[in-house]
Design brief:
Number of helices: 15
Shape: globular
Number of domains: 2
Radius of gyration: 21 Å
Order of helices and strands: HHEHEHEEEHHEEEHEHHHHEHHEHH
Oligomer: single chain
Helix content: 40-55%
Strand content: 15-25%
Structural class: alpha/beta
Strand order of the largest sheet: 2-5-8-1-9
Largest sheet: 5 strands, parallel
Distance between the termini: 36 Å
């Protein structure tokens, strides 16, 4: 049972985490908030933005703040699956006989930065699928459990850039959030340059251990969700299906494929964490509306009409939410 003390400790610890991250990462409050929520909820995050906006620095800072081993994988067109998962190599034992020994790849860390994930071929991208969903790695028929907490933060360049491969739907679905990293404002740019002129090194202090993170996740899982709030979340997800019973006019007009059941799981898990960060014991409608965009934007596929009308995914989500709210009020 979650007590008042648990809630206050949770929100205090989150405040300290955000404070330490802000020492190294200028601005990007929404991105930082979304990333920390996903880490506590046990999800993975996909960051989209042009190079140089601080995506890699954010992940390095998270490793420091959470006192967790951090591993970076730079995805390139020639990267092979074994470069991610590790492979068996032949070694000689004391008697001179040859035997296979498993050499772990960079995926065997707690925080994985999959940098520019959409520059690698689909075969290599899929090497992360099992790790992201089951938290195991299978090499030559042997499954190995990854250490908890395990978190993948992937960065991708906008699809329009040269040399990028779109991520397959199955992999996109395994990211809890897709967060858009905006370019810094003029004031933030000034602060970034001033900070990096003094030192390029991170200065954030540890604010949470891996064990404490798992305990926070356990606390969040116990937060109750009212039946009406749960139903509203599921209607939001179902409303993105153009052929479904809850389909909205925007979905019928602009969406080719709606969000999967994982979207429902993600929005509820994340909403519980968000409620605790705000010091509440229950999930509110406002939590769902705040999280709908990062949960849905990579899970719905727009049709040709949306492209022709230059309608963005976020704009379609806004239309779906407006229609769902209108129906709920009737």
């Amino acid at each position: 049972m979650v007590t008042e003390k648990d809630i206050s400790q949770f929100s205090e610890q989150c405040a300290n985490i955000f404070k330490q991250i802000s020492r190294d990462v200028i601005g990007q409050e929404d991105v930082v908030r979304g990333t920390v929520i996903a880490m506590i909820a046990g999800g993975n995050v996909l960051l989209e933005g042009v190079p140089g906006v601080g995506k890699t620095r954010l992940v390095r800072t998270l490793g420091r703040v959470f006192s967790l081993p951090f591993s970076r994988i730079q995805f390139t067109p020639d990267l092979m699956p074994a470069d991610v998962t590790g492979t068996n190599i032949i070694i000689k034992d004391e008697t001179g006989n040859s035997k296979f020994s498993f050499q772990p790849g960079p995926v065997f860390a707690n925080i994985i930065l999959a940098d520019e994930i959409n520059r690698a071929t689909p075969k290599t991208q899929s090497a992360l699928l099992e790790a992201m969903q089951e938290h195991t790695v299978t090499v030559m028929g042997v499954s190995r459990k990854l250490n908890e907490p395990f978190f993948v933060l992937a960065t991708q360049n906008p699809i329009e850039q040269d040399g990028t491969y779109p991520l397959p739907e199955a992999q996109m679905d395994r990211f809890m959030f897709k967060l858009i990293v905006p370019d810094p404002s003029l004031d933030e740019l000034m602060q970034i340059v001033n900070l990096t002129q003094k030192t390029m090194a991170e200065v954030a202090d540890a604010a949470c251990t891996g064990e404490e993170l798992l305990k926070m996740r356990e606390t969040a899982n116990q937060i109750p969700v009212a039946e009406d709030v749960m139903k509203y979340a599921m209607v939001l997800v179902a409303a993105t299906h153009p052929e479904g019973e809850c389909a909205t006019e925007a979905a019928k007009k602009y969406i080719r494929v709606g969000a999967s059941p994982r979207a429902g799981q993600a929005i509820i898990s994340a909403a519980k964490v968000l409620a605790l960060i705000k010091g509440r014991f229950n999930v509110a409608y406002s939590d769902l509306l705040e999280l709908a965009y990062p949960v849905l934007r990579h899970r719905i596929k727009l049709n040709f009409e949306a492209v022709a009308d230059r309608i963005s995914t976020d704009e379609v989500i806004r239309m779906v939410i407006a229609e769902v709210d209108k129906k709920q009020k009737k």
